[in-house]
Design brief:
Number of strands: 33
Structural class: alpha+beta
CATH class of the largest domain: Alpha Beta
Oligomer: single chain
CATH superfamily of the largest domain: Topoisomerase II, domain 5
Largest sheet: 4 strands, mixed
Helix content: 25-40%
CATH topology of the largest domain: Topoisomerase II, domain 5
Radius of gyration: 44 Å
Strand order of the largest sheet: 14-9-8-17
Length: 724
Amino acid sequence: MDNKHIEQKIVDTLKVNYMPYAMSVIVSRAIPEIDGLKPSHRKLLYTMYKMGLLKGQKTKSANVVGQTMKLNPHGDMAIYETLVRLTTGNMALLHPLVESKGNFGKVFSRDMKFAAPRYTEVKLAPISEELFRDIDKDTVDFIDNYDGTMKEPMLLPTVFPNILVNPNQGIAVGMASNICSFNLREVCEATIAYIKEDNIDLMRYLKAPDFPTGGQLILNEQEMRRIYETGRGSFRVRAKYRFDKKNSCIDIYEIPYTTTTEAIIEAIAGIIKAGKIKDITDVRDETDLEGLKITIDIKKNSDPDEIMNKLFRLTPLQDSFGCNFNILIDQKPMVLGVAGILDHWIQFRMDCIRRKSEFEIRKKSETLHLLNGLAKILLDIDKAIVIIRNTEQEDLVVPNLMEGFGIDEAQAEFIAEIKLRNLNREYILRHTSEINKLKKEISDLKDIVAHDSRVLDIICSQLEEISKKYGQERRTEIIGEEHVEEITTENLIEDYNVRLFLTDQGYIKKIPLVSLRSSGEHKLKDDDFIIQEEETKNKADLLLFSNKCTVYKLKVHELQDSKTSLLGDYLNNILKLEQDEKIIKMHATENYEGYFLFAYENGKMAKIPLSSYATKTNRRKLSNAYNADSKLVDIFYLEADADFAAFSSIDKVLVFNTSQINPKTTRDSQGVNVLKSKKGSVLRRVAPLSEAKLNDPEYYRANIPAIGCYLKEEDKENPQIGLF
């Protein structure tokens, strides 16, 4: 046997094997056509129509599924799943096409399983009548089914734009389709306006999509116009909720069409577990026969709106719907805007109405032709009876009548079939009186076929009738984008009071005040001690000054909540400090108000506004945070100007007010001379006057720059000052 491999170009293989499959999926499976149906929907609905399920009682779903297999050679489950989505029970469509009895699951639930087809019952919903109206009057083309034993329609002659009224989603090969649903009444009004007026603004009539699951649609008008024009784009839908004050819980009763209750509950449970929103204590599904309900228990005195705003950001309670209006037009996929869809649908309906009119012209013309023959007999009924009476062979009755009255075979056949009891003047007169009426009707139908305006008027009147008969109020509420609070990451952070502790060896602890009250002694490393502590909020910014003229910026919430029994966060790791760099001062701020006072060894001081450290971008490290010309002695935060005492290395003391120092916006400003040097003295220490413990502070006060006065003996005895 020859084992040689036959080489074949991959392109050829794809053309031969893959392209037919891809085309079949696109054209006859996944993408809806202008009647708003995919082939599986159409085959199923047509089977139900042929089973007489528009009228009468419901039948078992299993019966429908079995019959549909004559048109759709798929497994029963695939067909049944198609049926489920179309039912009133499943609630997936704004206007369900199938009336149902039994458990069909719910579109808003991922895990609620529908009952088996042997338990459930179905029939066509009244609105389905409008999908089949005049289907038996040659309005649409019929083709053979897969085995050539039956005929099925290529499209259904939908009297309203079902393509826009019921949502549709499909994934083909290399393309997909996702069409949102619109309110039937709005669609009918928009289509009528589109037919009657030029250059209409569709958004005046078709305000926004509408979903069977309700919710609130956040309208960005510009984006919605883009969707209407191009058929692509996305919009956001969020859940509706109410606050039950008595039970301190939030009830969610409508959710976005794109999600499920299970997905929402899992997301909220994850948030509770991670402790991201401390005010939520529990979440559960309370959906019952009354309808959908997710209950979120919250702590007393919590703000439900604030909690929901956070949940909208973190969970599918707010979700977006991505539009892709991909439709098959004459077996070709096309992405169309709303106007484009309406154009093709109007064209399709005009064709249906013309075909129906031509069908009726043919039928009425045939009747007229027969009645014209009957009218000729009216002139001499006796002659007709004599001809029939005197004809010996049955086969010759028709030819003899044709000859006797000058009529054709069809007319003669019709006359020959009249019962003897009807061969009277009254019967014939009554029937022939319809001739004029038929002539008028035929000429009217010919006028319809000839004039577009007549056809369009029929479409409009049918749409008005449908709107009146089946129209419903909107289910999805429209809210303007301006009324929606944009939730940033900042909004999601819990705010509470904390105390920060900075140690000499570079550890920082953030301890919530609530847990600080009941805590014991601080755990510190050997030889380590706390150099600064400060009370602030979890949402504040933290400035950390190092001995290398650098300031590092952190958000307080980025630090882990700690306890006194823990060491805290090690700043060298968090900030990636250099080998010999250490943090010497911290300051937390919420608004960047006030000043920093920098005191240098050379006796100069700089007063820099905090706003100089605020950056629009989230920069984590600012160099040149203060001046490097002289050694830094200390940094102070000034909420307002205050009195300070400066101590020199030769025990000279100067008391001054910081109002004498003009602020400089440049962070590394040299500052101004405050304490003059004498005999090479340097500034050794600075302290707020309230902490300096001077017996007679006014004795040391002077206008800057000044050398100051020698420390009095009585002040030297003060152990706080004596240390220096």
